[in-house]
Specification:
The chain is of the alpha+beta class. About 20% of the residues lie in helices and about 35% in strands. It has six helices and 24 strands.
Length: about 375
Amino acid sequence: MKRSPSCRLILPLLLAVSGLLYTLPASAARLKDVVEIEGVRDNPLTGFGLVVGLNGTGDSSAAFTNQSLKMMLERMGISAEQGVKVKNVASVMVTSTLPPFARQGSRLDVTLSSLGDAKSLQGGTLILTPLKGADGRIYAVAQGPLVVGGFSAGGAGASEQKNHPTVGRISGGATIEKEVEFELNNEQQLQLSLRNPDFTTANRIVQSINDVFGKPLASARDSGTIALVIPPEFKGRVVNFVSRLETVPVDPDQRARIVVNERTGTIVMGENVRVSTVALAHGGLSIKIKESAKVSQPNALSQGATAITPNTTVDAKEKDARVLEMEEGVMLGDLVRGLNGIGVTPRDLIAILQAIKAAGALQADLEIL
């Protein structure tokens, strides 16, 4: 039986795809989701500005607002009085983020947060504000009308507020004036930084990169840093190399850890959490105290005094304790099922985990927020 040309083309493709799916581990992640490339990062920008045009909801007693307004007017050639007070102006802190490889003329979103005692920034306009980086240089300038995702209204007896009217945002309100000097195509090597440093993960990344490219390009310096040499065929085409590098499959490892938030009762456990042989008992003591006042009223014309006698009732109940025994090497699922079987609440579970950790039977890091 002869095969058609289309079958001869499709069969090798299906075999290649099936082989790729078989070799990739189920927990594999893309390299771009595990590491950061040194030098390719965002840069925060901040600036101090004035918002004008407010309907009497601006700063009323902030001295720096009056001082800034006076200085701005003087730069415009307007002589302002020493004690100028305008409630239509508010001082704000302007923040933004400069993305990597941003070029002059590109637009950035900015966020404005009130610094004084302004009640609302609704309807205001930001005056030209320079935005500086950590090195003190100006990288962008911001200006324009802002949008507030809330409101505040009220009178002498009542008021109503929704969200935060003292925080606003200007979409595309800043223009980049200075670029961060970094030429990716001129680099001879790259340095990768793991978002969660781990020796096993770093070693797996090195092996995956070298296997994909067929050359010893990567080497681990420590648990959080990997040095990567750019191959000769990608000289001047580093973007293509990084694009291919980002899709390298990696199976990240993680330490056994339990994160506990006592304020909210939230518990998050990793899959590698194990418990040694241990027996634990869980019991609850419920104490209910009820207090009432007993009034003794004298008869008429008896010239007696009204007496108030407190009456207190205490009711204490203790649930029967149940003992749960866990064998050596219990996994996360067994631990959760066992604790749920004895009817523990999240807050009881926090206390139990702390006790197991103190006994040395919990083979994991217990992190309490």
